[in-house]
Design brief:
CATH superfamily of the largest domain: Spore Coat Polysaccharide Biosynthesis Protein SpsA, Chain A
Structural class: alpha/beta
Radius of gyration: 20 Å
Strand content: 15-25%
Distance between the termini: 68 Å
CATH class of the largest domain: Alpha Beta
Order of helices and strands: EHEHEHEEHEHHEHHEHHHH
Strand order of the largest sheet: 3-2-1-4-7-6-8-5
CATH architecture of the largest domain: Alpha-Beta Complex
Length: about 300
């Protein structure tokens, strides 16, 4: 008798990890991930055509599948990950993130509570003390997923659970915009429910210096402005919002001064200085965008 009619079981969860040329952090992510209970999971790393080969990494993690997506951008990599997997549950994490040892277990427990579930992202430093201004700033302000979800209405894709049927209905991530914001807004516009789950935890390294932090925010501002449509009315509102940036310093400075995530006056001084510097730079960028100039 042959094996006709016998079908391979479909896993419960697909874990999708986009990656580009960051092997050290990718391996750190995968070592943490295999400490999780990965029973009934398929794990897929989608490499975005890194110049640094992943041959050695693949050998270290024989149970994890690797594919290459030549179209650039994390959106294309995540879309390829969905296409290449079959599980009805999708868990997204980034290659530079560090999943908690119970990340998958918690994901299983909470996955039926909503259509989209975002979790907690804890910032950690990769360099020894003292913190740089960028690291101190990120410790206070970076990756506040509760605020993103409960106030702004979107979840980042570095710690996100959804279902395959939801993804297929909403459609793929779109490149050239802030793909996590864009996809979340499209999903909730269709009536899908988004919630925050604090027990679903991953870590993310802080930006180590001003250049890295500046680069992050330049990309964010380009993506956010790109989503506005750029009409005259939008540009006027964008300029007014930019002019209000200095006032936001006064609003957020108390958070720096009272944050339990900072230790000592040095941390607070550096975080405060970076807050001022970044908000003033964002004002300049927004005014340039409003009049049609590049940033």
């Amino acid at each position: 008798m042959g094996d006709f009619g016998i079908q391979e079981a479909i896993p419960e969860i697909a874990i999708i990890i986009p990656h580009y040329n960051d092997v050290v952090r990718l391996e750190r992510c995968l070592f943490a991930l295999i400490e999780n209970d990965l029973s009934d999971c398929e794990v897929l790393v989608v490499d975005n055509g890194s110049p640094q080969p992943l041959t050695e990494t693949q050998a270290k993690f024989p149970s994890i599948r690797f594919v290459i997506e030549t179209e650039k951008g994390a959106a294309a990599a995540r879309n390829r990950g969905v296409q290449e997997t079959r599980a009805p549950r999708l868990m997204f994490i980034d290659a530079d993130c560090l999943p908690a040892s119970d990340w998958v277990t918690v994901g299983r427990k909470v996955s039926d509570r909503a259509d989209l579930i975002g979790g907690r992202v804890e910032v950690f430093d990769e360099t020894p003390p003292p913190r740089s201004g960028a690291e101190a700033f990120e410790a206070v302000f970076a990756f506040d997923f509760r605020h993103y979800i409960e106030v702004q209405g979107f979840s980042g894709t570095g710690n996100l659970i959804t279902r395959r049927d939801v993804f297929e209905d909403v459609g793929p991530f779109r490149g050239g915009v802030s793909e996590d914001r864009d996809w979340s807004f499209r999903a909730t516009a269709k009536g899908y429910r988004l919630i925050y789950e604090d027990a679903l935890r991953v870590g993310h390294p802080s930006r180590q210096d001003w250049l890295a932090l500046r680069g992050k925010w330049r990309r964010i501002m380009q993506e956010m402005f790109g989503q506005t449509g750029g009409s005259l009315n939008v540009r006027i509102k964008w300029a007014l919002k930019g002019l209000a940036m200095p006032l936001s310093i006064l609003v957020h400075l108390p958070k720096v001064l009272t944050s339990p995530k900072l230790s000592g006056s040095g941390d607070r001084l550096r975080a405060g200085g970076t807050l001022v510097r970044l908000r003033l730079l964002r004002m300049i960028w927004m005014l340039r965008q409003a009049i049609g100039l590049e940033i």
